[in-house]
Specification:
Helix 3 links the parallel strand 2 and strand 3. Strands 3-2-4-1-5-6-7 form a seven-stranded parallel β-sheet, with helices on both faces. The chain is of the alpha/beta class and 296 residues long.
C-alpha cells in the first residue's frame, strides 16, 4: 500500500515539474491556458464551440486541445468554429498530464495564440489532481447532474478558479436547486465566482469569454483555499532543489500569474478564508452571476 502511494506521489511530483516547464513555455509565447474540467455530458464541448466561434468572430487568436479516450468527434465539432484544434487520444487514461499536453503543442500551437482552451477528459476525479500549466481552471457542472456535484467532488470544484453552470435553459424542467448548488460551491471553495451559461441560447458566453480575456490581460483569478497548501509544497521543493533554472524550469516572472492548483488534497476546507485578489467591481461572484445574466 505504501509503495502504491509513494508511486502515485512520484507521478504527481513529476507532473508538477512538467507543468512548471509548460507554464513557462506558454508564458514566453504570451498564451493563457484554460483547463476545462467536468463530468461526461456536462455540455462543455458545446459551450467551448460557442466560445471559440465568438473568439474567432472577434478576432481573438484562440486554439483548443481536446482529450478523449477514443474518437475524434469533439475535435471535429470544435473545428467548425474556425479555430485551430488538436485532438489527444489518451488510449484509456482518465486524465491529461502536462507532458502529454506539451508534446501536442510543440510544433503545432500557432504563433500569437492568445488563449489556449484545454478540454480535459470527461471525469471529475483524476483530472483534478493534475496541473496542466494553466492560468485558469474552470470546473463545469450541468443542471441535469444535480445540485450536489460540488460536495460530491470537492477537489475538482475546490481547486477551480471559476465554476460554470451549463444548460441553464432547462434548469426549471429538471428541477435544478440553484441555491443548494451555490451553497455547495461556497462550502468547498469559498469566494469562487460562479457563472451561469447555456450553449443553446448563448447565455453567459460573452461574459465567460470576457472573463478569460481579462485573465489573459493580467487580471489575477480567484485563489482557492485548497491551492494554498499545494503552493507551499511546491515552493518548498523549489527551495530544496535550488534555482529553477538548474532544473530547466522557467522561473515565474513579473506579470506572470501564480501557478495553477495541483494535487493537494487537504481535509480541512475551511482552515482559513479565501484570498481573492479580484478588483472590488469584478462582475462575477459566488451566487451572483454576471450582471447581464440575472438569476432566474
Amino acid at each position: 500500500m505504501c509503495r502504491t502511494v509513494d508511486l502515485h506521489q512520484a507521478v504527481l511530483a513529476k507532473n508538477d515539474e512538467n507543468a512548471l516547464t509548460l507554464r513557462g513555455y506558454l508564458g514566453d509565447r504570451g498564451t493563457t491556458a484554460v483547463n476545462l474540467l467536468s463530468s461526461p455530458g456536462s455540455g462543455k464541448t458545446a459551450l467551448l464551440e460557442r466560445l471559440l466561434a465568438r473568439a474567432v468572430a472577434e478576432g481573438t487568436p484562440a486554439a483548443a486541445v481536446t482529450a478523449d479516450l477514443a474518437t475524434e468527434n469533439d475535435a471535429t465539432r470544435l473545428a467548425r468554429s474556425g479555430a485551430p484544434v488538436r485532438q489527444i487520444l489518451t488510449d484509456g487514461l482518465c486524465h491529461l498530464e502536462a507532458g502529454m499536453l506539451q508534446r501536442q503543442l510543440d510544433g503545432w500551437l500557432p504563433e500569437g495564440t492568445r488563449v489556449l482552451f484545454v478540454e480535459n477528459v470527461g471525469n471529475l476525479v483524476c483530472p483534478a489532481s493534475y496541473d496542466l500549466g494553466e492560468t485558469l481552471r474552470i470546473a463545469l457542472a450541468s443542471v441535469t447532474e444535480g445540485e450536489d456535484k460540488p460536495v460530491k467532488y470537492p477537489t475538482a470544484f475546490g481547486l477551480a478558479h471559476l465554476v460554470v453552470v451549463t444548460k441553464t435553459d432547462i434548469a426549471d424542467v429538471v428541477g435544478f436547486d440553484r441555491e443548494a448548488f451555490l451553497r455547495g460551491v461556497e462550502q468547498v471553495n469559498p469566494g469562487v465566482p460562479v457563472l451561469e451559461t447555456s450553449a443553446r441560447t448563448g447565455r453567459g458566453v460573452d461574459a465567460l469569454l470576457a472573463l478569460v480575456l481579462r485573465c489573459a490581460a493580467g487580471d489575477a483569478p480567484h485563489t482557492p483555499v485548497l491551492a494554498r497548501e499545494h503552493s507551499r509544497h511546491l515552493h518548498s521543493h523549489e527551495h530544496e532543489a535550488g534555482p529553477a533554472q538548474a532544473n530547466g524550469h522557467h522561473p515565474q516572472t513579473a506579470g506572470q500569474r501564480p501557478s495553477a492548483p495541483g494535487h493537494s488534497h487537504p481535509t480541512d476546507h475551511h482552515a482559513s478564508g479565501p484570498v481573492d485578489p479580484r478588483p472590488a467591481d469584478h462582475p462575477v461572484g459566488p451566487g451572483h452571476p454576471h450582471e447581464q445574466e440575472p438569476a432566474r
